[in-house]
Input
Amino acid sequence: MPSVDVPVALLGYGTVGASVHRLLEEQGDEIERATGHRLRVVRALVRDADKERRFAPATGVLTTDPADVLGDSSLAIVAEVMGGVEPAGPYVLELLASGRSVVTANKQLVARRGAELFAAAASSGAQLRFEASVCAAIPVIKVLRESLVSTNVHKIVGIVNGTTNFVLSAMDEGRTYAQALAEAQELGYAEADPTDDVGGGDAAAKLAILSTVAFGSRVPLEWVAVEGIEGVTQEHVRAARALDMRVKLLARATLADGRVDARVGPAFVDVRHPLAAVEGPFNAVMLQGDAIREITLEGPGAGGIETASAVVADLVSIVGTTGTGFLQDDPVWHELERLPPGDLASPWYLRLEVEDRAGVLERLAHELASEGVSVARLVQQPVDGHATLHVVTHEAPAGRVDRALAAIRALPESRGDAIAIPVVSQRGVENLGWA
Ligand code: NAP
Ligand code: HSE
Output
């Protein structure tokens, strides 16, 4: 199909804006093959055009004059990645009112002025998309608006601020609050003014947006009760750990008897709860609803490229649903080969039963080594006069493990069946606790 060229303007070219440009450039061929559209950043509004930039755009793209974007009607799609309510709000309003579609990563803007912005979009026929404003890379807005439209979501519990989760995780590892916050700022997770992160204001705006979308009723920011993590100390973190819990900044919204409760604040979370395991700048949102019971979405909640992925996804949704839209087409654009099933590598748990006498272990080790399967851990237990061996291997292709097991089963010293079960772990096998 012939490619459609789509000029895109950015309001802002900072951590997120530069990453949007980078993704559109580096993934441009893939996006074009999948959608038939080539999205190009042709204009970007900044405060200082002379500042040194990561992933600098071509000469002439940066401008400090808002009219270069607002007054150019050929720029039909604009991504607002500058932050703040002023002047971003009036800019976005003007764009929407004149029929231009806007993607925004700005949770404060959507939470505070969403009603007005959506009204402007509705009357001009433009689109306002805001996936990146909540939980960066996690596509929770699309899931709520499309996938869960027929379920009555009545409860949201989430970790929706990457900076505070990063800080609390770092404090759990022994770093101080100040060290951890400085690190989060350096890594580009924090807002321009990090008080919005640590004070809970960022999470509150995200919760207002999430609950508005989930409950289908506007939840004003003022309804969200907010407490930040400024009062959390090492003593709280240690006490939680001693009680098998973790301190997390939770955003919670509940629909009870048709009324809304929404709050952000520190909570002790039991280690068995899925949110306890969400660490660093990661976010997660648990949604409870009539038909779905419970769904948890987890992923990177902050960071330039992570947030840019959601901005780009919204840009693609706009071009896919307007004019030369493609979202009804067959999504297949190339042919991949199937990986032979035995080629996929994983660590393995092996259970082997053998005679308990000298030289047997050497023969087992020989069969494993012949297939290049390396042992990471081994425990031997006596059972009915035999030895049961519990083995964890380093990563090895399934086919090689199968061949090694077949050879082990054929050994005269083998007793009982030898089995292999894949090990799934976030940690390397060397660091696995032995259950
Ligand atoms: P940033 O690095 O501070 O970048 C802001 C950009 O906007 C800069 O290029 C800045 O220009 C420009 N800008 C700001 N005010 C301006 C004004 N009045 N006129 C013209 N240009 C202006 O911020 P960011 O981290 O990319 O965040 C951008 C948005 O994404 C915010 O709404 C934020 O909440 C949201 N977000 C960020 C993350 C993240 O992890 N960083 C994640 C999710 C959502 P100069 O470069 O010249 O200063
Ligand atoms: N400052 C925000 C956070 C960025 O730390 O989660 C994502 O909105």
In short: Residues 136, 161-163, 189-191, 197, 202, 301-302 surround L-homoserine (ligand 2) (CB under 6 Å). The chain has 14 helices and 18 strands.
